[in-house]
Amino acid sequence: MNPLGALLVRDMRLSIRVGGGALMGVLFFLVVVTLVPFAVGPDLALLKKIGPAILWLAALLASLLALDRLFATDHEDGSLDLLLMSRTPLELVVAVKGVAHWLTTGLPLIVAAPLIGLLLNLDPLAEGTLALTLLVGTPALTFIGLIGAAIAVALRRGGLLLAIIVLPLTVPVLIFGVAAANAAIVGPVPFGTPFTILCALTLASLVIGPFAAAAALRQEME
Amino acid sequence: MRLCAIDLACHRGGRDVFAGLNFSIASGQALTVTGRNGAGKSSLLRSIIGLVRIAGGRLVLEGGDPELTIAEQAHYLGHQDALKPALSVAENLRFWAAFLGAKTVDTHACLDAVGLADLADLPAAYLSAGQRRRLSIARLGAVKRPIWLLDEPASTLDVSAQQQLAELMRTHLDASGLILAATHGPIGLADAQELRLDDIAPVGVVDEERDGRSESSIPVSAAAIGRATHTSAAPSQPDGDQVRS
Description:
Number of helices of chain A: 10
Mean pLDDT of chain A: 88
Radius of gyration of chain B: 18 Å
Strand order of the largest sheet of chain B: 5-6-7-3-8
Number of helices of chain B: 6
Strand content of chain A: under 5%
Structural class of chain B: alpha/beta
Mean pLDDT of chain B: 80
Number of strands of chain B: 9
Shape of chain A: elongated
Number of strands of chain A: 0
Order of helices and strands of chain B: EEEHEEHHHEHEEHE
Low-confidence stretches of chain A: none
Radius of gyration of chain A: 18 Å
Strand content of chain B: 15-25%
Helix content of chain A: over 70%
Helix content of chain B: 25-40%
Oligomer: heterodimer
Distance between the termini of chain B: 19 Å
Distance between the termini of chain A: 31 Å
Order of helices and strands of chain A: HHHHHHHHHH
């Protein structure tokens, strides 16, 4: 197996096995979304209106959950030293770790979103659209999060710092993700405009994230 | 192949760890780095592979692969074992072998060489400190790299594992590898040269003193082995050598 393939398989195994964050992310997502109807009350029209925003916020928080351990565990057990001195470019190593993180935390959220959407009185069309915006937007959350995870790698309690660094950077993704979902459900803005910008944000973060995170890791190690 | 350090200096956390360090090891030779705690043994190993920035001087690798850096041709066995508790012994080894570029790896033979063949399917979480160290040593045998940088490789190992390690190191030297080992005690290589960091630059030495000192720092007890004679003079540099500075 090639080095990057081996890394992908290892990271996915680790997050699925004991102590991994994969199932935890979905459960957290479910709990947050379930709490909202209790807090807001049984106003079906209101729930339908704020539904996409709630699901997006919950997805954002859930994808942050496992991020702080993404490089920190490798740093603590010495694996990061070996990753840094590898023949594979560090940018690709970081990107593969991001992909593994998304496959184990982002993808399950998208699968679960239509089911959880029932709690918020979303109809099938709305659920489909919402899942589509999450599918396109959550990779951006992960890859922006990579930067924060790399900066916070050497800190004992890096989770909080990670959230403070990452959450403001995810504001554009949140705005256009929710806008696209709302556009399809209630109008009057056409769906295409915010959705295209969301795609662009994701593509940009796929490029910038690994380079920025790799630079942060190199800086931190020296 | 020959690895040379020329007037190497390391500066960490606002103090000079060492300065004016010279050594040269060729294929088939081993160099043990000794010194009290904090003398800079680990910093030296980490600076060779670029995990610590070099404050001065140069590192030159003659005769290596010109396409690769020193780190990319080296094995680094640090204080930490780089193992994942959730993965089994064999999975840990297979991952590092694949990641470090081995096309195929005989997991059983590599684990057998360090006495862990029976534990291949056990999660690494259940290993003792010595067994964890053995497993990370198995990595050295699984992937061929000419330069071995070992940071106190024998710590936590029992007598039989120390002998297995010495055996692995001798095999590596016979295959024209070179070894740099930071250590406090003997590691079973009788003909290794020794680099004493205590003699190089004391802790807290100020810059002026360091400059005066750097001339006089000659490393090693000159028990030269192998084909090349040991020298601390700066080597010639034919084209294609890699220099880190």
